[in-house]
Structure formats: structure tokens, C-alpha cells
Amino acid sequence: MKITNPVLKGFNPDPSICRVGEDYYMAVSTFEWFPGVQIYHSKDLVHWRLAARPLQKTSQLDMKGNPDSGGVWAPCLSYADGQFWLIYSDIKVVDGPFKDGHNYLVTASEVDGD
């Protein structure tokens, strides 16, 4: 099989991939774009489709006042004990040597958050 890189075209930075049985899931950063985090699904690590945008409520991600290029950076997706675990940071300050961010953990039995 010939594979062309990148396998996931477009703006999909900071990928985090986990395997659940025969399925692969990839979470990517969305920065200041809402809803937060995009999760893709693949059976072969080559062909990907958008499966979920799990952070759709302001109770999960409140980006009021976030600067350009702030928001969700480098989400981490894993699966254990029958649950998807998504850790993400909401970056509030991007200027200077230090970043100010709030860190969160959400879990769900299905990758779409339900």
C-alpha cells in the first residue's frame, strides 16, 4: 500500500492517537476555534474521518477573553476501563516566556462524548 503524507490533510496540529480494539482515534488541537478538539477515526492509520468535536459546551471550554492562538493546545486522548479520557489545556496567555493555562479532564463511554 502506498501512503501519502500527511495522512490527515489540513490544519491538525499536536496529534494524540489511541487504539481501542481494531479502531484508532486521533485528537488534535483547535486553538481558539470552537467547538474544542477534533477527534478522527481510522481502521488503518491511513484513511481518517472526523468522528467528534467533544467540547461543545462552555461548561467544558470557556474561551472568553482568550488571545489569538490561545485556547486548546495539545489534547491527550486515551482509553481505559471502558472510558475515553481526554486531557486538554485552555491557554489564556501566550505572550512572554510563561504560558497561563487551565487544565481539564473529561471522560465518556463513547468517543463523541455521550
UniProtKB/TrEMBL annotation:
Gene3D superfamilies: Glycosyl hydrolase domain, family 43. GO terms for biological process: carbohydrate metabolic process. Keywords: Glycosidase, Hydrolase. One of its GO terms (molecular function) is hydrolase activity, hydrolyzing O-glycosyl compounds. Transmembrane segments: none annotated. This is Beta-xylosidase C-terminal Concanavalin A-like domain-containing protein. Belongs to the glycosyl hydrolase 43 family. It comes from Bacillus safensis. InterPro entries: Glyco_hydro_43, Glyco_hydro_beta-prop_sf, Glycosyl_Hydrlase_43.
